[in-house]
Design a protein that fits this description.
By secondary structure, this protein is an alpha/beta fold. The chain has one domain: 3-Layer(aba) Sandwich (Glycerol-3-phosphate (1)-acyltransferase). It is globular, with a radius of gyration of 18 Å.
């Protein structure tokens, strides 16, 4: 879902298109090899019920490097059990945050794609059915299991990708499965900052997901993303889900304004 503000890598004529195709093919092959290499230890760790399974994190971090995505961490992730609330710009966000060690809360629409569902489940993704009030108890249980397994779970309260320049409204309803907040969980806002690359990275238009992936994966220039870990929420900001989303959005907006 991008506006395509940045020219596609194929803008250099036949030679440019050939180079882009070669980059795309090489990166896809490298991703497949990385997946095959790390799949066995990932499944073994899950079978042994090993807490904080490190292999999904290693795969996501490696995938970022393979695709030319350079991740820089700014600030410090809070210790303990952490729920991250972040702005959402691109599918790259998953690699940037997931590579630090985090499961995710996603909407159940993603679960209908078998490959996506399978890969997401390997990283303990919790799929939330926003309108299934009867299933809230099960979703809360899944979230607590993911927090216990990974130690950190991330959620994008905008509910969709934005342009990376302005924040969309944060939907407190997405935190419905988190109310009441599990005891001992820290809420930490995170700002994903793509700098000057954001016009060509933000997925905000009608571009199909596969086309967006191909375009970014074929880029010659790397994508730089800074993951800003902001101070955890405290006090009245944790009173209820609306207070949480409002405080998190304000913190990210302030960081964006400060640059």
């Amino acid at each position: 879902m991008t506006d395509g503000a940045l020219p596609a890598p194929a803008s250099g004529g036949i030679a440019g298109r050939a180079a882009a195709a070669l980059r795309l093919g090489a990166r896809l092959l490298a991703l497949l090899l990385a997946l095959l290499t790390l799949l066995t230890p990932t499944l073994l760790a899950r079978a042994l019920r090993r807490p904080h399974n490190p292999w999904p994190r290693r795969f996501l971090a490696l995938a970022a490097r393979v695709l030319g995505i350079r991740v820089r961490l700014v600030g410090t992730r809070a210790p303990g059990t952490v729920l991250i609330l972040a702005n959402h710009v691109s599918w790259i966000d998953i690699l940037a945050i997931g590579g630090t060690g985090s499961a995710f809360v996603g909407h159940d629409g993603l679960a209908v794609v078998p490959l996506v569902r399978w890969l997401a489940r390997l990283n303990d993704t919790v799929f939330i059915a926003r309108h299934d009030r009867a299933g809230v108890a099960a979703q809360v249980a899944q979230l607590r299991d993911a927090l216990a397994e990974m130690g950190t779970v991330s959620l994008f309260p905008e509910g969709t990708t934005g342009d990376g320049v302005a924040l969309l409204p944060f939907k407190s309803s997405l935190l419905g499965a988190l109310e009441p907040l599990p005891e001992g969980v820290v809420i930490q806002p995170v700002w994903l900052d793509y700098g000057t690359a954001v016009p060509g990275v933000a997925w905000v238009g009608a571009e199909p997901g596969v086309a967006n992936f191909r375009r970014i994966a074929a880029r010659a220039r790397p994508v730089d993303v800074r993951v800003h870990f902001l101070p955890p929420l405290a006090g009245e900001a944790l009173a209820h889900r609306k207070a949480i989303t409002a405080a998190a959005r304000s913190a990210i907006a302030a960081a964006m304004a400060a640059g």
